[in-house]
Amino acid sequence: MSRTSLRAVALADMNGLRTRHTAEFAVPRERVIAIAIVAAMIGLFAFALYRFEFSLTRIINGIGNLGSFVPLMFPPSPGSWPRAWLFLHALAETVAIAFLGTLLAAILAFPLGFLAARNTTINRVVQFMSRRMLDSVRGVDALIWALIWINVVGLGPFAGVLAIMSSDIGAFGKLFSEAIEAADNKPVEGVTSSGGSHLQQVRFGVLPQVLPVIAGQILYYFESNTRSSTIIGIVGAGGIGLHLSEMIRTLEWPSVSFIICLILVTVAVIDAVSGRIRRAIVGPVPQDAH
């Protein structure tokens, strides 16, 4: 019997098939729940578009306004040599904020990662408390931490360093703990079979496995924090962000484009350098991963 004929016979006997195989034709409960979740998400998406007054007309008009002042940004120019040096000094300050903030966060999060990891923690209570603390710190954005630290220690790059450090402790602690939990248990078993203590199991069984991963994560965050340091500088936490905000406020568009070019070049250089260092530490990416 051909496939067409078989389908015609099945359609003609559809009621009988439903009666004889009720379970196979019933809609699974999981599928009903999945359809309900998708429908709820689509409804929420449509409500959000309506609630926030989404409008293609406003987007098109905004792009038109963008085209009116973008030509004013060319050619990029600082205006004078003293101002160019001022911008370069502020850019170096931004990179320093990112470097110090990332390094301090990594140092503080390193022991917290071991306490939050299931296979290296002291007990379940400590693990639970460590994870909840990291979740709480991680839930506050760097910009909010900058506003908090500015009110605590005043304006300037010191507040920026504290803001980057505070926002990254939670993220580093979570990433470090996940890397520790994913470590192979065989080296730990080897240390245990030779009479090693719990501390020696962590030192010789876990630490050599996770250090390259942790180093790669720190380098990636340093690159990302260079951009974050620019943003928090706008609210007074030091660096090039403050000058960028002032140039936008006074409509000095050639200086704005000059600062943006400086930031882009700096991020590209840091990305290239940190990428080489990550590959040197972690090793080349296997071809199968592509």
From TrEMBL:
GO CC term (a single one): plasma membrane
Keyword Transport: yes
SUPFAM superfamilies linked: MetI-like
Gene3D superfamilies: MetI-like (1.10.3720.10)
Domain ABC transmembrane type-1: 91-274
InterPro entries: MetI-like (IPR000515), MetI-like_sf (IPR035906), PhnE/PtxC (IPR005769)
Subcellular location as annotated: Cell membrane
Keywords, sorted A to Z: Membrane, Transmembrane, Transmembrane helix, Transport
Domain of life: Bacteria
Membrane-traversing stretches: 32-52, 95-121, 142-165, 254-273
GO MF term set: ABC-type phosphonate transporter activity
UniProt topology in membrane: Multi-pass membrane protein
Family: Belongs to the binding-protein-dependent transport system permease family.
Alphabetized PANTHER family for the sequence: PHOSPHONATES TRANSPORT SYSTEM PERMEASE PROTEIN (PTHR30043)
NCBIfam families: PhnE
Protein name as catalogued: Phosphate-import permease protein PhnE
